[in-house]
Amino acid sequence: MNKFLVFLEQREGVVKKASIEIWNRVQGLVSAWPDSAVSGILAGPADIGQLNGLLAGKGVVYHADEECFGLYNQEAYARLIADTMKRDASTVLFFADSSLTRDLAPRLSVSLQASLLSGCLLFNQEGIAGSCFRPVYSGTALASFLPARQLTIYTILSRGMVEVTATESHIDFMTLQPQHVAVSDLFPVVRRIVMRKGQLDVAEATTIVAGGRGMGGAEGFALLDKLAALLGGAVGASRTAVDEGWRAHAEQIGQTGKTVAPALYFACGISGAVQHLAGIGSARIVVAINCDRDAPIFDVADYGIVGDVFVVLPKLIDELQEYLKKK
Ligand SMILES: Cc1cc2nc3c(=O)[nH]c(=O)nc-3n(C[C@H](O)[C@H](O)[C@H](O)COP(=O)(O)OP(=O)(O)OC[C@H]3O[C@@H](n4cnc5c(N)ncnc54)[C@H](O)[C@@H]3O)c2cc1C
Questions:
Q1: Multiple choice CATH, 207-326, 3.40.50.1440, 3.40.50.1220, 3.40.50.150, 3.30.70.270
Q2: Which of 48, 203, 252, 281 could disulfide-link 257, Cβ–Cβ 3.0 to 4.6 Å?
Q3: Mind listing the pLDDT tens digit for each residue in 118-140?
Q4: How far apart are CA 273 and CA 295, in angstroms?
């Protein structure tokens, strides 16, 4: 029997949409492999009522609700997951790709002697322990990878546009018995950075309005905040905008930032350097606004507007406000 474990990541007690999406995608795979079962592991205090109606399929979610798991600690999380995998005899572990799981997955892969396939986009439907596809060459191609070991860990990129709705489901929740988690002081909390209430994570957003040096400064991003609010999306940034201190690093998209896969991506005053494009290869529709008609961003854009962001964006916002008023 194939046993799959899905990690449900929470922050401040809120389970990430990307984790719920991965659970549902794994359930979709299981229906093609009848001899399979799915379990979940949720670490940290969280109201499980928030998951009602969101998790599809059948399975059990183990909830380690002790305070000591509230904040991410690599050592404690790795031990909890490894113990759960051993107890359940799980052979495949799924993570939604995030900065937390990019830190946690390599440690688990070493300690469990498991293959690690990170940043996967799609599974090859012919075998769950078989190949999966990952974007390569800055998202310009998909390559198929096959795990070498029996135990496999996948981190899966959120597709953003996948609707997270469960039709038929039967999920049991089981609170894990309190356990003493003695962690070393190798991972002290140095600084806590809390997102603004209601702020969307770019890695989970279906619409992203991103800005670069062309936004001219932190105040220029107010236009992007406004557009993102109207579209129900998140604001992203190029590395230049982050290095200049205009936006937080959590919003950086690209090779040294986050990889995103929104349905709609606006690149405003972003040149389209290869390191930026590395993060947006899976975006479905790219709209670029740039005053330089030769900017490389136009090579990957589905819609391009050659113009000054400070002229184009206010018009776009006005039109959108009018449209939303009439709707
Ligand atoms: C190892 C490494 C890793 C990197 N990782 C990343 C990464 O993760 N993410 C990332 O983004 N970059 C990354 N970079 C940096 C990358 O190479 C580029 O320098 C960066 O993406 C450029 O940011 P930008 O497009 O905002 O700025 P620029 O390249 O300076 O482009 C600004 C653009 O704005 C346009 N513009 C200016 N004014 C206006 C206006 N008023 N209206 C409209 N358009 C205007 C210009 O025509 C130009 O095209 C990395 C670089 C290295 C070496």
A1: 3.40.50.1220
A2: 252
A3: 988 866 665 555 678 888 877 77
A4: 9
Per-residue model confidence as pLDDT tens digits over 75-110: 999 999 999 999 999 999 999 998 899 999 999 999
- As given in the structure block, the two tokens for residue 20 are 């719920």
CATH number of 2-175: 3.40.50.620
Q: Which residues line ligand 1 (CB under 6 A)?
A: 212-214, 238-241, 252-257, 269-271, 273, 275-276, 279, 289-292, 295, 308-310
Q: How many angstroms separate the Cα of 267 from the Cα of each of 138, 144, 230?
A: 16, 29, 16
